[in-house]
Amino acid sequence: MTKTKSNSHFGKSGGVFGNRTGGVITCTNCGKRTRDTGHNEGTFEMCRRCIEAQETANGILDGQYTLDDVPEKDRDLVATFL
Ligand SMILES: [Zn+2]
Q1: Ligand 1: distance of its center to the CA of 52 in Å?
Q2: What residues flank ion ligand 1 with Cβ within 5 A?
Q3: Who contacts 66 (Cβ-Cβ below 8 Å, separation ≥6)?
Q4: What is the full DSSP assignment across 42-77?
């Protein structure tokens, strides 16, 4: 990821950075506190499980598979993104 100088305009004061300091993220989907482990948790502001569920949901929306192909334990979570 490259930072460009035009990005320096980034500073609305307040909140946004709170989720990022120390790499601790509160998942905006399930509320779980997690860390950025290099799977873009910080970018998505979601835990890894929710990110994967969202990716699965995207695959369903793209017609790659259906909700029936998702393991039952993950189905509810995936459905929240549909
Ligand atoms: Zn989550």
Answers
A1: 9
A2: 27, 29-30, 32, 47, 50
A3: 60
A4: HHHTS-HHHHHHHHHHHHHHTTS--GGGS-HHHHHH
Contact assessment for residue 67 and residue 78, using Cβ atoms and an 8 Å cutoff: yes
Per-domain residue ranges of the chain = 23-79
Q: How far apart are CA 70 and CA 80, in angstroms?
A: 13
Can you give the pLDDT of all 82 residues of the chain as single tens digits? 555 555 445 444 444 444 445 578 899 999 999 988 888 888 889 999 999 999 999 999 999 999 999 999 999 999 999 9
Q: What count of other Cβ atoms lies within 10 Å of the Cβ of residue 67?
A: 13
Q: What is the DSSP letter of 39?
A: S
Q: What pTM did the predictor assign?
A: 0.68
